[in-house]
Amino acid sequence: MMVPLWWYIVLGVVLFVIGAAGVLLRRNILVVLMSLELLLNSVNINFIAFGRYHADFRGQIFAIFVIAITAAEVAVALGILVALVRNKSTLKIDDVTVMKG
């Protein structure tokens, strides 16, 4: 028995809403980054589900590109966070309003 497409869509929507709420409501930078990852993973679920539904590999190819871009984003963000903690010793978004060079 195959899982219906709408189950994947509902799962993607639920994960997207949880991720969007985390980005909008949380004040810790790490939680915001994890919420962004959740947003991108929900999009990947929908890409793969629609690709499988239409018997096409394009959804999986897009998902692989999103995963690659996400890995680069995480590497840059964690580097910025390490520098931020060394200078400010905080991870709260409200405390970090201006980044000076």
How does this model look, in words?
Keywords: Cell membrane, Membrane, NAD, Quinone, Translocase, Transmembrane, Transmembrane helix, Transport, Ubiquinone. It is a multi-pass membrane protein. This is NADH-quinone oxidoreductase subunit K. The protein is mostly helical and 101 residues long. The chain has helices at residues 5-25, 29-53, 58-88. Helix 2 runs antiparallel to helix 3.
Describe the structure concisely for a colleague:
With 101 residues, the chain is an all-alpha fold. The protein has helices at 5-25, 29-53, 58-88.
Shape: elongated
Distance between the ends = 58 Å
Average pLDDT taken over every residue: 89
What percent of the residues sit in helical stretches (DSSP H or I)? over 70%
Architecture blueprint of SSEs:
Layout: H1 5-25, H2 29-53, H3 58-88
Helix pairs in contact: 1-2, 2-3
Summary tags:
101 residues, mainly alpha, Helix Hairpins, 3 helices, NADH_UbQ_OxRdtase_chain4L/K, NUOK/Mnh_C1-like, transmembrane helix, membrane
